[in-house]
């Protein structure tokens, strides 16, 4: 019975891997056909040398870093306070953090345009800085479910109440407690949320397109509509970025386990 269960498990794993990697292999193989009759990296060279690719990718990386900073500033204090002082509010906070999963991004961006257009009381869309700020806040909302759950999971692994009481007994204020005691203890969880946020921002299309910002997502769509091989090369690059973020999450998780094992 155990043998058949093991065979079934391996069979399911192999089928799943084939289902995932065969289309991706075809995608990669087609991206190498830019030169007639031979395999080459011409599509990748043209993409990486494209000034628009460099500009849009750099813009999305900067926006990802800004989004991560905003998410940390919002989520870490909120999750800490809920766990320490307001455990009764946890179900409500979790419900609020799940809303971005059920509210489409297009609804969020149209709400932004409606509330912050040039004729409103706060015309953020009337300037580049204001529009970028709206985009960063929109990205923060989209990444909120992942960042909050990562940080909340990290806080579960430490004794928040004891650490806070010990710090207060030594005269530490709330800012010191958060920045020097709580945050360093949940850094692996914060990094996991940060890598997920980075992957989300790099590939996001709706917010950037409707706010008319030069992000990587709209660039992917424009290239896909006008060129034959470069879109497939860009898709492979986007997959590589996403896998890199997932690999970093696994690396951080293993590092967290290894550092806690001696204790």
UniProtKB/TrEMBL annotation:
Alphabetical list of PROSITE patterns matching this protein: ABC_TM1
Membrane-crossing residue ranges in chain numbering: 7-28, 57-80, 92-115, 127-148, 186-211, 231-252
Provenance organism: Mycoplana ramosa (Mycoplana bullata)
Keywords associated with the record: Cell inner membrane, Cell membrane, Membrane, Transmembrane, Transmembrane helix, Transport
CDD domains assigned: TM_PBP2 (cd06261)
Domain ABC transmembrane type-1: residue ranges: 57-252
InterPro entries: MetI-like, MetI-like_sf
Membrane topology: Multi-pass membrane protein
Protein name listed in UniProt: ABC transporter permease
The keyword Cell membrane is assigned to this record: yes
Record-linked Pfam families: BPD_transp_1 (PF00528)
Family membership: Belongs to the binding-protein-dependent transport system permease family.
Localization, UniProt: Cell inner membrane; Cell membrane
């Amino acid at each position: 019975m155990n043998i058949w269960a093991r065979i079934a498990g391996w069979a399911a794993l192999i089928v799943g891997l084939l289902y995932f990697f065969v289309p991706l292999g075809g995608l990669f193989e087609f991206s190498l056909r830019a030169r007639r009759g031979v395999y080459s990296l011409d599509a990748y060279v043209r993409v990486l040398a494209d000034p628009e690719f460099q500009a849009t990718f750099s813009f999305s990386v900067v926006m990802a870093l800004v989004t991560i900073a905003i998410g940390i500033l919002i989520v870490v204090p909120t999750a800490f306070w809920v766990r320490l002082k307001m455990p009764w509010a946890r179900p409500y906070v979790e419900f609020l953090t799940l809303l971005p999963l059920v509210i489409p991004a297009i609804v969020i961006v149209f709400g932004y345009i409606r509330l912050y257009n040039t004729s409103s009381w706060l015309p953020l869309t009337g300037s580049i800085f204001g529009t970028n700020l709206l985009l960063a806040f929109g990205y923060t909302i989209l990444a909120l479910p992942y960042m909050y759950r990562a940080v909340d999971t990290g806080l579960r692994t430490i004794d928040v109440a004891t650490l806070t009481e010990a710090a207060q007994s030594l005269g530490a204020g709330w800012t010191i407690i958060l920045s020097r005691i709580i945050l360093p203890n949940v850094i692996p969880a914060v990094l996991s949320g940060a890598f997920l946020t980075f992957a989300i921002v790099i590939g996001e299309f709706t917010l950037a397109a409707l706010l008319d910002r030069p992000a990587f997502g709209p660039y992917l769509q424009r290239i896909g509509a006008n060129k034959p091989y470069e879109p497939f090369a860009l898709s492979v690059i986007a997959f590589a970025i996403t896998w890199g973020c997932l690999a970093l999450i696994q690396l951080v998780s293993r590092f967290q386990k290894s550092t806690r094992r001696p204790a």
